[in-house]
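Help wanted!
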Amino acid sequence: MTYLRRYWPFGAVAVLALLPYAGVGIPGVFDGPLNSPGTLQLLALCLLFGGLATGYDLLFGRTGLLSFGQALFVALGAYGADVLITKAGLPLALAAPAAILLGTTVAAAIGAIALRVTGIAFAMVTLAFAQVGAILAARDAWGLTGGDEGLALDVSGLPSGLVGVVNTYKLYWVSLAYLVIVMIVVRRTVSSPTGRVLAGLRDDERRVGVLGLNPYAFKLFAFVLAGALAAAGGVVHLLLVQGADPKIAGSELTLSLLVMVVLGGPGTRYGPLLGGVLYTYLDYRLTHVAGGLPGPLKQPLFVLGVIFILAVYFFPGGIAQLRLRALRRTL
Amino acid sequence: MSILQVRDLNVVLSGLSILQGVSFDVAPTGVTVLLGRNGVGKTTTLRAILGLAPGIGSVTFDGADILGRRTHELVQKGLGYVPEDRCVFAGLTVAENLRLAERTKNSAYELVFELFPELKKRASQRAGSLSGGQQQMLALGRVLLTENRLLLVDEPTKGLAPKVVTEVADALARVAVRVPILLVEQNLAVVRRLAGDAVVLAAGQVAWTGGASELLSDHDLTKSLLGVGSHS
Amino acid sequence: MSTVVLLAVTGLGLSALYFLIASGLSLVFGLADVLNFAHGWFLTVGAYAAYWATPKVGFAGGVVAGVLAGAGVAALVELVMIRPLYKRTIAQVLVTVGLSLAGVALFQALFSPDARIFPSPKWTQQVVGFLGARVPVKSLLLIAGAVVVLAALLAFLRWTRYGLIIRAGVENREMVTALGIDVRKAFTLVFAIGGAAAGLAGALGGVYFESVSPTGGASLLIFAFIVVVIGGMGSITGSAVAAVAVGLLQQFVNYYGSAGAGDVCAVALLAIVLLTRRQARQA
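Answered by r_m:
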């Protein structure tokens, strides 16, 4: 039993990694068989957003920081790598680390300023900074970002194995690898002494201050780490959709990350992952299937927004808590 | 028959147990003083009675259980509150601070201005620019405008000059003739002058109850309970 | 010179729009600690109400409809959605986030996602001579609207009992209840006031942009947030001053610099204010 409990994540990753070899379909859930490019693309997005939500939860659920700026770092990863590959002709192996470094550096600079205020003011300030990214992306800043249309990725700069519909399964593996890395990084951070200080900050910042620790430094660490994870996710998103557009820089992306985390269960190990997967899946399915539904139900954001509001009132612990409660009831 | 009965009051704030089973009575006349060293939960006791801190147990005011009731309703029922550190509205004028506290047409401005003529003189001055003593008078004046059946007064002489302490004590003595007071006070000279009954808290529990003069005349008892000599 | 006057007037028009949104946000935040992401949606509600009513009852009636719709929806949101979460600040923010997402999507479903042409009266689309420049009437209309709202708000806060309660509550809400006042009634009131100002911004913004769209409120909201933080939360005069600074800065830099540079400058101004403010405001 304990073996199962300890090692099931490895089994889960193995099963997910083997999905591209599964020719079966799940009718009603996916349109094609599991290994069709369309289904793999959707699954890859689900895993990517599971990872992005888990990284964002490092701020919201683990440290208690309500940041509205996460989209900026995703966008820096996506646009950064895109511009370096498409405009500067760099290979992916150089462009990806450079873009992640860019996101991390900007996160450090913005965090240093924004963390001077706390609580709701911090939320507003991060939102304002992220807006700069959205403006630069949408206005084709320095002729680099392609404006409203976005910047399509010049695939000739990529390894040939990552190009084309037939290779979607490899991009799926990239997403899976990203998710696994985020899960490990967050897990290790949370269980480290630093992670316990972060939890202390979330519960009662004054008590951490009393211990002689500097809350500012720890919060900045969490902010920068989350920014780096977001930028890496941005690079993966760029590869998945072969381009970057202003949507990825907008506040709506941050808000949806927040919705994913709250739906899944903030501060839990698998909650944000579940929330990210479920949100991405529902968003996609409601957009593509909802044609026959009446009125506002056609709008995925209407349905998701309403579910989210109900979740805040009726299951504030998210899906993860819901599962625990059901488990406790059966025991 | 007491005006306020506190029974087995417990308060937990951000995971820390502040009060553990506090029980005492407040006499229907005169001043009952709540004593104890810093951090034993005197202010929390007042706040829990008023519903400003979450309490478990029972608090009976004038025969009705009031624990868990909303603060503004309790105040309207005649529970007046003068908080620690005054809490006057610094950006409002003295007159506006008083006007905010009005509840009926016939507010007792004559009484307030007779006790604290300074407030009338400085009516249009911003409360934030008053001295500590004047702010305390304003905080007292605010509750005296309305009819109260019990006043909860938290450290009214804290940080005040000796002359002002006497003025505030004079005012409290005059008020105590009309309405009972539950007073938190560290200044033992003021306690000696005003108090009838005394309740001493230690580490979130009631350590001693009895007459205030009885407590203060026993030097060793005072020293062990409050950490200061009664002659100081 | 005439360019400067034109930019000043159009910039102040923008300032007026920001002020109308920020004043409500600032009051709601200052008194009730609620960061209201749905405030932009109140503006959208007002804009569509004016869009719907103007052809039926005329422009003035349309503006009134926008104000009433904004106030009504805001009061309802406070009573039904915010109040049950009293003192749970983060949960309140989350609910307004959900409302802003679902609200925009609702309008997209009801009125289509595309912008619609606002039925502005002819006179609002003209220009008049002003200090040697030809300035748009619609900017002057917004400025007039904002000045009226500013004066009305200041008078309300200064001279009425509820104004007194709100000013005291922004300073120390707990002490207001300890004086026997039900401060939550004032919450509903500030939501309604903020919603009314946002509804007015929606109606006049419809004239200004000559169109209404479901997402119109959300994009203005971010600059309103900037104005609120710079101006100091809970301060109406602070919001007014900050709105003027941000609007003018944005307009002038966008004209003399490259497009979008003014928007970035507004955020830079926010960073400078935060870095230089000696004691950062704690929320």
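OP: Thanks! One thing I noticed: The mean pLDDT of chain B is 89.
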